[in-house]
Predict the structure.
Amino acid sequence: MSTPTRIVVITGGSRGLGRSMALHLADRGTDVILTYQRAADRAAEVVAEIEARGRAAVALPLDAGDAGSFAGFADAVRGELARRWHRTTFDGLVNNAGMAGYAPFAETSEAQFDDLMRVHLKGPYFLTQRLLPLIADGGSIVNISTGLARFSFPGSSAYAVMKGGVEVLTRYLARELGPRDINVNTLAPGAIETDFGGGHVRDDRALNAQIAGSTALGRVGLPDDIGGAVALLLAPENHWITGQRIEASGGMLL
C-alpha cells in the first residue's frame, strides 16, 4: 500500500525563505499550499517551480495580519484539499509570513507595535487555531522566529518581542497538541541574504561583512540554509523532536 502524499501549508511562500522552504519540501516529495499577500505573479512562479519538480502546488491569497480573514482562508484550503488531493486534511503548517520593523525602543510608535503584533504574534496564534481541524493527527507545525530573540541589536525590540512570544506559543502548542501526535517546533533564522527589511543584510557590504565576522561558519546565511532546515524539521523521521527552539544562524554571536 502506497504512503499518502504529504501536504504542507506555508504562509508567505512566494519569496525569500518561504520560497526556499517550498522548493526543498517539493524536492523531498511533498506537495505545497503556499500563501501570498500581493505578489500573485511571484507565487505563480513558485507553483510552477514546484510542479516542474513533479509535485502539486497551489497559491492562495492571505493577509497574515488580518485575523478576520482566517475563516475564509481555511475554507479555501478545505476546498483545495478536496479538489486537488481528495483529502480533508494536510500534514504540516509553517507559520512563516512576516514583515520587518526597525525603530529604536524610544521611538517605536503604538501603531508600529500593533502592526508587528498582528502579523507576527496574533496572526500565527489565530491562524493555527483556525486551521487545527484541517491538520492531520500526526502532523507537524513549524513557527518561524528569529535569532534576535536570543541576541539583541538596537532597533529590533518590537519585532523581537513578537518572535519571543511565538517561541512561548510553540511550547504551549507542543504540549496541548501532543495528544493528537502533532509535533511543534520553532526555527529561528539568523541574518539571511534576502529582500526582507529592504535587503540590507544582502546589499550592504559592510553590514554583511560585520555579520559574517561574528558568525562561527564565517558567512551570512542564505535562503536555502533555512529552507533545508525547515524541510528536515517537517520530515517524518524527525517527529520525535517537539517543543524545541532550533536556531539556524551559522553560529552567530556564540
Q: What stands out?
A: The first helix runs from residue 16 to 27. The domain at 7-247 is CATH 3.40.50.720 (Rossmann fold). The two ends are 47 Å apart (CA to CA). The mean pLDDT is 96.
